[in-house]
Write a structure and sequence with these properties.
mainly beta, seven-stranded mixed beta sheet, four-stranded antiparallel beta sheet
Length: 125
């Protein structure tokens, strides 16, 4: 069983920053490819960042490239999403997810087996 718990969401002003954390259970955390996804009201869930099992390789869509940074600390079984220069379009529920079958950044949400409960991020103008 793999359990993921997000934290760090909240209300932030436009232009501000926020760091999300994802705590994972399991001794094999370091072998999973992982990612952050978000879902805004009325929209599909989409990828915002993906990371390899080692943390060396990452992927970002154009919507967040240069503003968001994904990282992981395998010794602490924790993944992070640093979000800078936030704007209203970043408002969404953010989910962390684990792909136990992949080692490299994985962009297809259908390939992720385990999901956290989500944490709300609201950006005010």
């Amino acid at each position: 069983q793999v359990q993921l718990v997000e934290s760090g969401g909240g209300l932030v002003q436009a232009g501000g920053s926020l760091r999300l954390s994802c705590a994972a259970s399991g001794r094999t955390f370091s072998t999973y490819a992982m990612g952050w996804f978000r879902q805004a009201p009325g929209k599909e869930r989409v990828l915002v960042a993906a990371i390899s099992w080692s943390g060396t390789n990452t992927f970002y869509p154009d919507s967040v490239k240069g503003r968001f940074t994904i990282s992981r600390d395998n010794a602490k079984n924790t993944m992070y999403l640093q979000m800078n220069s936030l704007n209203a379009e970043d408002t969404a529920v953010y989910y962390c997810a684990a792909c136990t079958t992949k080692s490299q950044p994985t962009v297809d949400l259908r390939l992720y087996q385990y999901w956290g409960q989500g944490t709300q991020v609201t950006v005010s103008s």
